[in-house]
Amino acid sequence: MWISEQVCSDAQKHFDSVCSAILAARSSVLVEMYIFRQDALGLRLLEAMRSAARRGVDVRVVVDGFGSPAWSSSFLRSLARDKISARVYHPVLHLPGSRVSESRVLGDARHLSVLSRLLVFASRLNKRNHRKLIIVDQLTAFVGSCNVTDLHKRWRETAVRVSGSDVSELCSSFEVIWRRSSYLDGALPGLLRGRKLLSGLRHGSLVRVNCTRRLRRRHNAEIVARIENAVDRVWVTTAYFVPSASIVAALINAAKKGCDVRLLLPGKNDVGLVSCVSRMFYFGLMRYGVKIYEYQPEMLHAKTLLIDHWASVGTTNLNHRSLYHDLEVDITLTGRESLDELARQFLIDLATSYRVTSERLRSRPLIEKFSGYLVYPFRTFI
């Protein structure tokens, strides 16, 4: 079990806690972020990291090339001058001014045609580091849905602060991503050594990562099995709902045997086409008793699962991108207070959501229905 767990459903409070922890760091600060913008929140976090680095703390940060395209080599050099080590996971093309070239991104595809090279590039681009992870002194970890951007401070997010022995496994997973990421001289250490770092990840670990195919299969199978075997409740909060066939079947089977299956999804989505595709699944799920709600106040970006007396908070959405492509990280919570807090917040969110009905679905604009059918074949890219 974790020594401590603290669930937070307010992005502002979450980042206040993160900054305080970084400012008090003694040995290390590890940051892994999908979106890290250089706005007010980003500058605040960077200043806390600079302060820690000036005290001799080992500060390292990895961002995703697609989610944080503004992280150029010149910016990485400026961080290096402040004694902050930074890398980019899958740069979109290259880091300007560095030796990370397009051929580096495309691998050994230079002999292929232009079209083939573009297809190879697209496949690489579709594999992103979607994790939001901050580890301080290898003792305390912050995991959740919160990106470093002022925009997300207004969204409904959920994160958790944990401490305990399993934080070491989060550190190992960070090292794997660190070694897979590009830095100024373009060198990329071999991946085999990184895989070995995760070879000892325990099956019963409270940390769920998908850095290898084996772990990804284990993670996906666990989600399906827990939904299938649920007795009392399956309460899902997810920002992007484009489920696999196995998850759809698990949700239906749970509802058919009388389990309370509820899906809380965004009513206002920052990626509008995702909602068009999501609603294509509604009729089939509702027919078997799955209750679906759409959150109204603002963008719902949280990713939580509450299944009977088991709970998870992290970065994984129930969509193809999270399940089959992106790197994700989730935390299993064990404390009764944590589960109660997640359940309490879920019910609060339902109070500001509307329950989807067949009548509402049928009254959707024709353009929305058409868009769903048009985009569905490309669901692995959204």
As a whole number of angstroms, the C-alpha radius of gyration is 21 Å
- Structurally, the number of domains stands at 2
**What kind of sheet is the major sheet?**
8 strands, mixed
Parts with pLDDT < 50 across at least 5 consecutive residues: 95-109, 189-194
Strand content: 15-25%
Anisotropy-based shape: globular
User: Tally the helices: what do you get?
Assistant: 15
Q: What's the rounded overall pLDDT mean?
A: 89
Q: Going across the major beta sheet, what is the strand order?
A: 8-14-13-12-9-10-11-15
Identify the CATH homologous superfamily of the largest domain.
Answer: Endonuclease Chain A
CATH topology of the largest domain: Endonuclease, Chain A
Helix content: 25-40%
CATH architectural grouping of the largest domain:
2-Layer Sandwich
Structural class: alpha+beta
Q: What top-tier CATH class of the largest domain fits best?
A: Alpha Beta
Distance between the termini: 35 Å
Number of strands: 15
Short description:
The chain is of the alpha+beta class. Helix content is 40%, strand content 20%.
Description:
The protein has two domains: 4-191, Endonuclease, Chain A (2-Layer Sandwich); 206-381, Endonuclease, Chain A. Helix 6 packs antiparallel against helix 7 (191-197) and helix 8 packs parallel to helix 9 (245-256). The strands form two sheets. Strands 8-14-13-12-9-10-11-15 form an eight-stranded mixed beta sheet, with helices on both faces. The protein has helices at residues 11-23, 40-54, 73-81, 102-106, 114-125, 167-180, 191-197, 213-228, 245-256, 272-278, 282-286, 320-325, 336-351, 358-362, 366-375; strands at 4-8, 28-33, 58-64, 84-89, 132-136, 140-144, 159-163, 207-209, 233-237, 260-266, 291-295, 304-307, 310-314, 329-333, 353-355. It is built from 15 helices and 15 strands. 40% of the residues lie in helices and 20% in strands. With 382 residues, it is of the alpha+beta class. Mean pLDDT is 89; it is low at 95-109 and 189-194.
